[in-house]
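Much of what follows relies on a compact textual record of a protein's fold. The record below shows the convention in full:
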Amino acid sequence: MRSSSQAAVTDIEIIEDFSSTAKCDEGFLRLRRLRCQNRRADGTASKVYRVDVVDRPRLDAVAVVVYRRGASGLEVLTRMNLRPAAYFRRGKDMTLPDNASYLRVEEIVAGLLEPEDKGEAGLRHRAAEEVREEAGYAVRPEDVRLLGAGFFVAPGILSEKVFPAAVDVTGVAPGVPQGDGSPLEEGTHLLWRPLGELLAMCRRGEVPDAKTELCLQRLLAEQA
């Protein structure tokens, strides 16, 4: 989280692009370049074709709708995060150009699952840890509700599943989010928005994060 003495981030500078010399299995994401063919029920096979698969070091993630009940209804907590991949769209040939910079993207709380996070209890544990770290709310794993099955964001290339969850922090006093110390958390700040307003912002593209919109829809379906 940004301290009061730290200047705001205004740009992300690429110091080096070492894509041409980097190995596919090093770095935060692991790229597997495969040659595959389809096996058919009649014993025949398709022609050989290429498949690229992107894995994270930790396979899956949890996303948490942190909400509270106010006079106007449900309010949802979001984070403004630095997102280099979205930011580096600038200058590329877009089908529908827009004027957004995407230096920061507004999202709900989320984090990668660790090896020890097993089963539904593991999902609740990691959700509670992420809420404490990213939002500053001390909640118990048993306070976390799972919002149905996990989902793929881009199943054509990305093996990760995101597991949606929610937790009600009405009346819970917030602490100071500790973050993880990464430069990507510089300037991160929290916002509270009415659920309906936030969902409308998703539909208008002002909050262009798919997991946020889907998790909000899951929460609404649960409340109905």
The beta strands are 30-36, 49-55, 61-70, 73-82, 104-107, 109-112, 145-146, 151-152, 161-168, 189-194.
